[in-house]
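Predict the 3D structure for this chain.
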Amino acid sequence: MNRIESVFSRLKSQNRAALIPFITAGDPDSAATVALMHRLTQAGVDLIELGVPFSDPMADGPTIQRSSERALKHHISLKDVFAIVAEFRKTNQNTPVVLMGYANPIEAMGHENFAQAASHAGVDGVLVVDYPPEECAEWVAHLKAQHIDPIFLLSPTTPESRIKQVAELARGYVYYVSLKGVTGASHLDLQEVGNRLSQLRAHIKIPIGVGFGIRDEQTARSIAEQADAVVIGSRIVEEIEHSSKTDLLMNVGALVESLRRAVDTRSNSSATGK
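Done. Predicted structure below.
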């Protein structure tokens, strides 16, 4: 059982939803990213999604786009991202880390080289926004050879045929994008999310996390009632953006601790299908 499977197995036995934060590697700098990862674990997160900075993050809204821009000003490369994970792993061998990004940097490195480097650094899963499941069998094979979980996105408009393909390929968990649009969007329809999750679980047997549009404790609590994981990115990245270096860890930690408490208040009778 790998780290991702272990986390979800433990949470299932406790009838709890996972809390998964997203931050961008190198924002505001490499050293701060490692410190933030440790602060996130202290605040009670179950898994960390670490964004790979990219110059054209098409699925991301302005907040996360700016985080990539800040990281790229420090010339954060894919190799630097691996170094950040490796540094984190020196003192944390338990918290899963999933890299989230775009195809171009991976294509430049090569699938096999990327998978080997990611495994060596201690990466547990990879989500590539612009790798459609219809075209990535070889990519998935390279990841699985290194015991890395391929994570896939599903959205409100994903057709059933693609859902079935993702169900065949995905490992670890599936990330359901709860809104049409980019990260940081609003107007989350909780009833629609619940209906869609029921439809997805007819095909997908691994955990399903929900992200996009979750910005406060109330929404996090409501999503935790329905999903296996709550993914929060833009709100946390905003806190990073607006915090001074002195207050960064304190502010982010306090925010995530409040979200952790909210997620853990889900009803024991909630039917998440786990």
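Residues 42 and 139 are 33 Å apart (CA to CA).
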